[in-house]
Amino acid sequence: MNKDNLIQFFQNGLPMSPGKAEQLAEKFKAKKIARNDYLLKQGAICNESYFIENGIIRSYTYDFDGNDVTTAFSSKKMFFSDLLSFFKRIPSKEYMQALTDCETWYLTYEDMQSNFHTFPEFREFGRLNIINQYGLLKQRMLSMLQETADQRYESLINSYPEIIQNVPLKHIASYLGITDTSLSRIRKEFTKRQII
Asked: Dihedral (C-alpha) 42, 172, 36, 32: value to the nearest 10 degrees?
């Protein structure tokens, strides 16, 4: 593992010199996570924020009926954590589990706070990253209200093809807010449209 993707992510997110991006990246530690391992369990406080070098992480919770519901997928070249638990220091209401073997870079809460105070560039990058995370959450919420299941599926394919290729259908269905049967129908119809 090397930090080239992390350095590039910093530079794409906020204009800064290569030297400054490398200095920020040096603060991150490497962590390999085996498939099915948990990074966070409900009730624990999220103490680490991750950048994914390779792999897919799923966030999920349980509804009133005890059904497993996927709330988010995170994949290559994405930052992720339970932002509310991480920054507010409160117990998480979600689980975070590796769906594949993953290679990540992470910062602890203490390291994050230290970097915010030490590096103005990192503080600005962090602010933009939180805004982007909020934007994704808002976009997802609105899509559940304003788009059909077919549209949500197509959007997921276009935005994150690696998720469609590597994630069990039951997790994709719960993320889209539909049944496995509905997802099978949507996939068949989508495939037919692609062939025509």
From this structure: -100
Indicate the pLDDT class of residue 145, thresholds 50, 70 and 90.
Answer: very high
Q: Is the pTM value of this prediction over 0.85? A: yes
What is the spatial distance between Cα 194 and Cα 22, in angstroms, rounded to a whole number? 43
Rounded Cα gap, residues 163 and 177, in angstroms: 16
- Bridge partners for 61 per DSSP: 69
Measured CA to CA, the distance from residue 169 to residue 184 in angstroms comes to 8
